[in-house]
Amino acid sequence: MKNLLKLEELAELLLAVLVFAHLPYAWWVLPATFLLPDLSLLGYLAGPRIGAVCYNLAHHKALAVVVGVSGWWLGSSLLLLAGTVLLLHSAFDRLLGYGLKYATGFHDTHLGPVGVRPTEMQLIS
């Protein structure tokens, strides 16, 4: 099942690249904007609950679809670009195992725990 889900994420990532290929932007724009959704991590400065809400909003694929379809419907290549980048980034994150966050902390995701927890780091040192 895990491989099937990763295949689905890869298909979404490739779809985003295909959509981007039809946009009127140079290819350097894609890597230049790729990490912009991670600015939502700044929400963690206000605590894990707000951080999780900010992160999950910026990494939710439904938002990517709504923004992208709105761009297509309104004829706005900038909105279409934003939706495409959101989808590409979210699919890539999920391929790496970074899921939507729980309010209990950054490491707790819907795909399971990620990274080394601070308590584990203390045990290692």
From TrEMBL:
Alphabetical UniProt keywords: Membrane, Transmembrane, Transmembrane helix
Domain of life, per the record? Bacteria
Give the stretches traversing the membrane: 12-30, 72-92
Name used for this protein in its record = DUF4260 domain-containing protein
